[in-house]
Amino acid sequence: MVDSSVKKRTSSLSIRGIWLLLGVTILIYLFFKVLRPHNFGSLSNIFSYFQQALLPTVAACGFYFIIVMGLFDFSIGSNIVLSAIIGVLLSRHFGYWGLIIGAVFVGTVIGLINGFLYVRLRIPSIIVTIGLMIIYECIGALIASGNVLTLGENVNAFGVAPWNIILAFIAFFLTHLFLKHTKIGTYTNAIGSNEAVAKNMGININRYKIIAFVLCGFFAGVMSILTISYGNAITSSTNMASMARNFTPIMGCFFGLAFKKNINPVISMLIGEFIIAMILNGLISLGVPTTIQNVVTGCTLLGIVLLTTRVKKGTVVK
């Protein structure tokens, strides 16, 4: 009877969480649709918003593994740029294999370096990853030599449907698999809930922190494939410019955290990124200046963080 009541309560919370997210999505859609009926919200527009949401959701999937433990990674943007640069260069010689393996391998290695140095240096992850972000930007700038690297038309299938959707949903499936059916998901959540208790249970804390960073880097590498395929060109970033690429995946990840007790994090992250894509496109349709768009984006991020911290209190960024 107790198990049955718990299951019913969990199911009820899940349904309420889904309806809340869907309700917010519909309200935002109607708001912009009423203001700009001819420039916003057509079926083709909605499909475009969905495809735009796929890219940051993939990176958010990787970021989720570290942020659920109270860690942070400011090098995601530089990882995406450097992985895309290497992927483009290798695709010129090895086609799709060079693009996929090159980007994913570089992204994963960067994640491994981040995790290893964080564990070894024993300083906050924000400080470690900001320093590494600058290094990765410099490496990308040296490799690109100031040139704009263009992806060949023979290897850009991941920029349009259905291949971008297929690749993204493979990433979503892997995230779900790791979170729900492996020790990685169980232990990362345990560490995030109470690291001291998790350590007393015999969990190797440092090992799973490194694994979380590796997964974060892996999914950043996958996003770099979608990014370069969608835009067909990439250039190096310097002076911490790559940090701008961090915030949209971070916002989607906070959606996952805010609703993780009610909804599968992958679903809530995807819906969250879709909401963000709608807001940005809605503001563009209204002719809102870029400065105001950034203000709205910042306010949205603050609102999501507030919602997240209300759901999970006492989280400490390490």
TrEMBL record:
- Main location as per UniProt: membrane
What GO cellular component entries does it have?
plasma membrane
**Keyword Transmembrane in record:** yes
State where the protein is found: Cell membrane
Q: Which Pfam families match?
A: BPD_transp_2 (PF02653)
Q: Which keywords has UniProt assigned to this entry?
A: Cell inner membrane, Cell membrane, Membrane, Transmembrane, Transmembrane helix, Transport
Membrane protein topology class: Multi-pass membrane protein
Q: Does the keyword rRNA processing apply?
A: no
Entry's InterPro entries? ABC_transp_permease
Entry GO MF terms: transmembrane transporter activity
Regions that span the bilayer = 13-32, 53-76, 96-119, 126-149, 161-179, 210-231, 243-259, 266-286, 292-309
What is the annotated quaternary arrangement, including any partners?
Answer: The complex is composed of two ATP-binding proteins (LsrA), two transmembrane proteins (LsrC and LsrD) and a solute-binding protein (LsrB).
Q: What does this protein do?
A: Part of the ABC transporter complex LsrABCD involved in autoinducer 2 (AI-2) import. Probably responsible for the translocation of the substrate across the membrane.
Q: What is this protein called?
A: Autoinducer 2 import system permease protein LsrD
